[in-house]
Amino acid sequence: MGPRVALQRCAMPIERSPPEVPMKPRAASLLMVLVAALQFPIASTAFADLTFPFSDNTFNNGDWSLTILVNRGGGAVMTGSQNGSGGNPGAYRNVTDQLNAPPSGDYTAIVGLHLMNGAVYTPSAQGAITSIDCSLDFEMYAPGFSGAQMGFGPALRQGGVAYSAYAASGNASWLTFAMPGLVQSSFVAADGVSNPDFSLAGGPIELGFETSNSTCVSCSGYSNGAGFDNWSMVVHTPGLAGVPPGIPAALSLRAEPSPATGPLTVEFGLPRPERASVAVYDLQGRLVARLADDSYAAGPHTTTWDRRATSGSGAYFVVLRAGDATRRQLVVALR
Question: What does the domain layout of the chain look like in residue ranges?
Fold first, then answer.
């Protein structure tokens, strides 16, 4: 099996172009309106609690990167690569450390960040993080000395800074380390103080794990070899519960009344500041009216369509576009 990155997203339809249905607005009947509504469901503005699982049990070399964060003292080398067999079960990620003897009165240390390519969660786009459930299998197959251990644990990188939640083991056979319910303060940067930003304001978060080894002061050097398998990080987000008042968790659109005999009020909400447009199309996909096209702050906004000046009775789509996302709503206009 290859790496698994299964994102369970809110079921909200995304459309990148106006609908094209071979009907004329003036011929639209109640039956036609109902058929159109079934073909093009209206996006909901609310969504339930979500989980975003990221995992891998194969560790293909092209799926992972290794960044050395610390290399102190007498110098050290860390490698990370796939071993095709001997894992728990099957393939696994093999990590080796070679630490040279440190200078007198100092110690040698190395810390590496292993990130899975494409395993990225963005709080500002997907929801604030409540917690992360982490799990990783470990085996120390080649200890450098009796009692040798390797430090490791779930890790992430945000804004170029690495954060980790550490464990350590010298276990000689495969053992699963489960760390459920980790929160923002569970992950700490190298300064021992800073934490990542799990709020809606947080930037993209790359996911993976960290490994480390060190010598004692003035001790001799050594090498370690360890295996890692069945890596998993499941991100939990509270949905609307984590959204500041007045700021929608996702792009939202509502046009009313429908059926409309007069002006139509269009309310749209943006989860972040960005450029947005609102337009009206007939069922053949032709532009009827452009109601908004500007840069807007995060939060709710309102515009109006006085459709009596530009259209007759029939069914229309109100379409909101912002960034790469689109929302639309079917409305009915009557004379």
Answer: 11-47+246-333, 50-237
- How many CA atoms lie within 13 Å of 126's alpha carbon, on the beta-carbon side? 20
Percent of the chain whose predicted confidence (pLDDT) is above 90:
51
**Inter-residue contact 73 to 215 (CB < 8 Å):** yes
Cα separation of 76 and 223, whole Å?
A: 9
At the top level of CATH, the class of 11-47+246-333 is: mainly beta
**Nearest alpha-carbon partner for 182 in 118, 240, 136:** 136
Helix (H, G, I), strand (E, B) or coil at 125: helix
Asked if pLDDT for residue 40 goes beyond 60, the answer is no
Digit-coded pLDDT (tens) for 262-310? 888 999 988 888 899 999 998 888 899 999 999 998 889 999 998 766 6
Q: Please check whether residue 162 is in contact with residue 189, taking contact to mean a CB–CB distance below 8 angstroms.
A: yes
Whole-number Å distance between alpha carbons of 152 and 250: 36
253 within 8 A of 302, measured Cβ to Cβ: no
182-188-189 Cα angle (round to 5): 150
At residue 209, the pLDDT reads 97
One of 3.30.30, 2.60.120, 1.10.3470, 3.30.450 is the CATH number of 50-237, namely: 2.60.120
Give the DSSP letter string of 77-89.
Answer: EEEEEEEEEEETT
**Strand, helix or coil at 252?**
strand
Residue of 276, 329, 332, 334 whose CA lies nearest to 19: 329
The answer for residues whose C-beta is within 8 angstroms of residue 187's C-beta and 6 or more apart is: 154, 155, 156, 163, 164, 165, 195, 196
Q: Collapsing DSSP states into helix, strand and coil, what is residue 217?
A: coil
Q: What residues contact 1, with CB distance under 8 A and at least 6 apart?
A: 57, 58
Encoded amino acid at 116, one letter:
M
